[in-house]
Amino acid sequence: MTQDRKLKATSIIPMYKMIHAFFSWCVEEEYIKEGPMEKVECPKLPKTVIHTFKPDQVYWMIHAFNQIRTLNLEVKQSYAC
């Protein structure tokens, strides 16, 4: 079976850590002299850019929330009578 797709770093890193821990245990228990994973670097996760809101978008979200809150207070006051 051939592997047509590449695994992502998020899939490889947990496997790497598990295998590294196993070989470290083997060295600790003196089953082997040196762990083969010591020469293998852990894959790096790609840096992701988080897209944030623009100042005018934040303004309109706050404005919308304030309007909703005002409407809710008006509705509650009308039922209080």
Q: Can you describe this structure?
A:
The chain is mainly alpha-helical and 81 residues long. It folds into two domains: 43 residues; 31 residues. It is built from two helices and no strands. The protein is elongated, with a radius of gyration of 28 Å.
Whole-number total of structural domains: 2
The outline comes out as elongated
Structural class: mainly alpha
SS strand fraction: under 5%
- Written as H for each helix and E for each strand, in order along the chain, the element string is HH
Query: Distance between termini?
Result: 74 Å
> What's the alpha carbon Rg, rounded to whole Å?
28 Å
- Which blocks of ≥5 consecutive residues have pLDDT under 50? none
Helix content: 55-70%
The count of β-strands is 0
Number of H- or I-type helical stretches: 2
> pLDDT average, as an integer?
85
Provide the descriptors you would attach to this structure in a database record.
mainly alpha; 2 helices; single chain; 81 residues
What's a quick, concise take on this entry?
With 81 residues, this protein is an all-alpha fold.
Map the helices and strands.
Blueprint: H1 9-28, H2 55-80
